[in-house]
Amino acid sequence: MTGVPVVYADEDCRALYDVQGNIVAWFAQEHLYSLNGRYLGWAHQGWIYDRDGHPALFAENAIGGPERPSLHNKARALPNRIRLAPLPATLPRRQPRPARRHRAASWSRRSGLEYFSQ
């Protein structure tokens, strides 16, 4: 955990993008899916949880959760030079999601961009 942003949400919070503006995941309500439709976890109060219920990523306005690193001031907002890729008109079929786990207090083993390859 470094406090350096690894993904950004679009203004409508429909997708998450890497620092080059490529889509790494998309939302269906509070549930998060990979580009091929694999269930990754869910969002709650500014936190992104993995499939096992452990917090993996957080927004600067996240509420509660485990102790987190301070965010680097220069990297809080999406850089102006990045153009976000459009969300596809037809999204992939979503994988069935397992029953939601309870939110754990300890950090996920999958954080940063590794979270999106689970």
Structure in a nutshell:
The chain is mostly beta strands and 118 residues long.
Key words describing this protein structure:
118 residues, 25% strand
Task: Give an overview of the whole structure.
This protein is an all-beta fold. Helix content is 0%, strand content 25%. It has no helices and 7 strands. It has strands at residues 8-9, 15-17, 23-28, 31-34, 39-44, 47-50, 55-58. Strands 1-2-3-4-5-6-7 form a 7-stranded antiparallel sheet, with no helix packed on it. The relative contact order is 0.27. The mean pLDDT is 83.
Uncertain segments: none
Radius of gyration: 14 Å
The number of E-state strands comes to 7
Mean pLDDT: 83
The number of helices is 0
- Given the C-alpha coordinates, what overall shape results? globular
Largest sheet properties: 7 strands, antiparallel
Helix content estimate: under 10%
Lateral strand order in the biggest sheet:
1-2-3-4-5-6-7
Structural class of the helix and strand makeup?
A: mainly beta
The SSE string, one letter per element, is: EEEEEEE
**Beta-strand content bin:** 15-25%
Q: Termini distance?
A: 18 Å
